[in-house]
Amino acid sequence: MKYLIVGLGNIGTEYAQTRHNIGFDVVDAFARKHNVSFSLDRLADVAECKWKGKTFFLLKPTTYMNLSGKAVKYWMDKEKIPLENIFVIVDDPALPLEVIRIRPGGSDAGHNGLKSIREVLGTNQYARLRFGIGNNYPKGRQVDFVLGKWKGEELPVVLQKIDKSCEIIESFATLGTQRTMNNYNNLTF
User: Fold this and answer.
1) Quick one: CA dihedral 115, 116, 117, 119, positive or negative?
2) What pLDDT, on a 0 to 100 scale, did the predictor assign at position 185?
3) What angle do helix axes 22-33 and 155-184 make, rounded to 10 degrees?
4) What share of the chain has pLDDT > 70, as a percent?
5) Residue 41, pLDDT above cutoff 90
6) Phi, psi dihedrals of residue 56, rounded to the nearest 5°
7) 138 — pLDDT class (breaks 50, 70, 90)
């Protein structure tokens, strides 16, 4: 069984360890946990690992956030991965920093990466992990906040959530979306 695990983010050192790149950070942590490394391939940095009879293709699109759907579609088709085996990790400023939420599908909620995936796949019915980043910013400053680096006091929670997100990815592959939602949805740290 094959799974496509997509971490959304933007390439470039200026975006490294920013709130908007938490998807990259989660798939990086998953790759480290499973002792695999990424290599640049078509439209993405890609790593492949096997775990409990399952094959994971870890994807960090190099298309920038707004064109993430192109990379997802290419790798989904190339590896013949069904829609129900796609899991996208994304930042969510509508959720408090302390929360992780799993959804089987739904709206892009204004997130350009999810919007691109929906437009290219023609559906929003794919599983996603929404990693709460909070909304502690002044009115009109959302872009600066989302593209900003984590504050020191946020890092302990962020690191806990990254570790838990790796566990959730494994659960998604073994239990499926619904049971993973039942076990992990709306986790608070």
Assistant:
1) positive
2) 82
3) 80
4) 100
5) yes
6) -105, 130
7) confident
Predicted structure pTM score = 0.96
Question: What number is the average pLDDT over the span 139-145?
Answer: 91
Place of tokens 């619904």: 178
Q: Please calculate the CA angle 84-85-88 and round it to the nearest 5 degrees.
A: 100
- Count of alpha carbons within 13 angstroms of residue 149, beta-carbon side: 7
Check if 20 is active-site: yes
The first and second tokens of residue 108, run together, are: 């892009």
| Residues forming beta bridges with residue 188, ordered by sequence position | 99
Give the other-Cβ count within 10 Å of 101's Cβ: 17
- Angle (CA) 156-112-133 rounded to 5° is 15
Q: Pairing relation of β-strands 54-61 and 44-51?
A: antiparallel
Residue for token digits 């360890």? 17
Q: Give the number of other CB atoms < 10 A from CB of residue 113.
A: 28
40 alpha carbon, distance to own chain's centre: 18
Whole-number Cα distances in Å, 24 to 20, 139, 142, 157, 163: 9, 27, 20, 17, 13
Active-site residue (options: 20, 70, 111, 161):
20
Tokens representing 168 are 């959730």
Distance CA 35, CA 29 (A): 10
